[in-house]
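Researcher: Structure for this, please.
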Amino acid sequence: MNLVDEDTKAFNKIMEAFSLPKTTDAEKAERKNAIQAATKFAIEIPFKVMQLSYESMAIIKAMAENGNPNSVSDAGVGALCARAAVMGAFLNVKINAAGYDDKSFVNDVISKGQKIENDTLNLEKEILEVVNKKIEG
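Model: Predicted structure, token format:
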């Protein structure tokens, strides 16, 4: 829930930065720096969402493997939701990264995001295999 609030703050910071005056060279420089700082924050927050959502899948997998067999479908739904959270957050990372000037940072966060995305898809597949085997008997 805290990350939802942080994401809202990140968006608001970008909007505030874009509304700064840009009449003089000093104002333009200050505005650009504020936009870049806000953009970095707006990349970091959904990246944290990706990490946290992916980490939740270990618990979901344990629930599928060892939890109440009558609620194994809930673990499957949880895996689908975690995947959607990872994928959606990665879209936000990528769109915000497109406007950030530090390409070294961008390349690093995109590379890490792609790994999380791939790991998420693989773990989702494993969880759904467990779920479906238990449902089908």
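Researcher: Any notable elements?
Model: The mean pLDDT is 96. Helices lie at 2-18, 25-66, 72-97, 103-136.
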